[in-house]
Amino acid sequence: MWLFDIIKNGTLVDNQSYFVSEGILTNRRLGKSITLSAKSKGQWTYPHNDESAIWHFLNSVSRDVEKR
Question: What residues does the BRCT domain cover (predicted)?
Answer without folding.
Answer: 1-20
